[in-house]
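Q: Sequence in, structure out?
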Amino acid sequence: MQTRISQVAVVILGSLAMFALSACQQGAQSFAANRKSQAIPQLQAAEEMDYSKADAAGVDPVSREDFYAQAEAANFALKQLQAGADVPQSKIDDALVVPDEPRSPAATASLIDSLGEARKLDNQGDKDYAVDPVFAQDFDVQDRKAHYVMKNLKAGENVTRIEINDALEVPPNP
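A: Exactly. Output:
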């Protein structure tokens, strides 16, 4: 009799756990659908604004390239969402960024500082993986990209947002 009660209790607890898990999954699906429905009009607006700024009179070629690249990123994320694909929030956030007008000296200085921080992380990763040349190479390549972009920004050269974003990436260092 005691065994039968234990078996019934296990079945009931198992059923409750499955019900709770199902409710959590439905909540997560609802949250994802809501996020998607909010992101679509935002991406459409960002894409439109990027194209508008790119086509404006007097826009320099580097800024125009930045605007077009961002418009394409917004368009890509938008099409993926509309097709029902799961788009990471970081990709949506990146696609929603509308590039600034030509950078001010203060913005350039801030970018140079950020690139310096990225280089420090790259150098640390290079040291951490000194025994594994494959991983160390990833950090070395990123350090070189950051150095190149920093050098060009300091020299007053035009650097695209794509080059800057690429140089700011730091490989994962577990």
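The chain has a mean pLDDT of 80.
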